[in-house]
Design a protein that fits this description.
Shape: globular
Distance between the termini: 18 Å
Subunit structure: Homodimer, forms a heterotetramer with a Cas2 homodimer.
Radius of gyration: 20 Å
Helix content: 40-55%
EC number: 3.1.-.-
Enzyme class: hydrolase
Protein name: CRISPR-associated endonuclease Cas1
GO molecular function: endonuclease activity
Length: about 300
Amino acid sequence: MAWRIVHVKEGDLLRLRLDNLEIRKKDDKFYIPLSDITMVVLEGNKTSITTKLMSSLSQNNVGLVICDDKYLPVGIYLPYGQYHHYAKRVIKQACWTTEQKDLIWQSVIKQKMDNQIAFARWTGVEQERLELMEDLVSDLAVGDKTNREGHVAKVYFDSLYGKSFTRGDDNVINAAMNFGYAILRSCMARIVVGNGLVTMLGIFHKNEFNSFNLVDDLMEPYRPLMDYWINQNLLGEKNYLSYESRLQIIEFMNQKIKIKGKKMSIDNSMQEFVTSFITAIEANDIESLSNIDLKNFVGEGS
């Protein structure tokens, strides 16, 4: 089943109406069943939302994302304690050993780097730079102690956008990636919480000021897929991130990918990935981790 991400721009009021999300815009009313929604994204400065609706969003495991004046997600409201064995899972998570975390991080981050190389090859990056990235990946250690991921990222972005490019530049490429990664992060956070995991306790990211360390860990393989989607559907049209472009980025979550021979949406694949991650780390079976492969995304007509 394909669930919806509902994007609301300048709505007047959001409230609960008989298990439906009711959106009021001037004299118009729109109704969407909560059971059909995975996330609500709010833009604008005048939208009100009722506490009764927020309570029902939590009960239905629906995330709520708030955007700032630049249309970037800056806040997220997530369900709390809805997983049936929440305490048991958190206790297990707190007991993950450094060895367990390092082993699975090696697998997770390798998926990201492999996808970066695949996307770079798809765009026509010269063979010399592809081989440089492949050599870096071949030296990947358990826990990525030598930061191969950082070195690959440097070569990757330089190869795609030029050596003068930095992720801090004010341009449409970065605006699109920032918005896209924020949507990925929000969707992954909803799924991580829905599986009873604590978002703060990561396997690699350990920033004490970051409430989403584990989310940032698990979304890594999806970043190059978002890069591909942005390259295919947004770049070259406008020199700013339009409303239509933001909707197109959100639509990424409904695109198809094949996981273990099964075709599913990106959003559903995240659930599959998190479930396999829990099995892999708790059973010490890295082979159980689902593989997020750019070729299985591009090959589904994205």
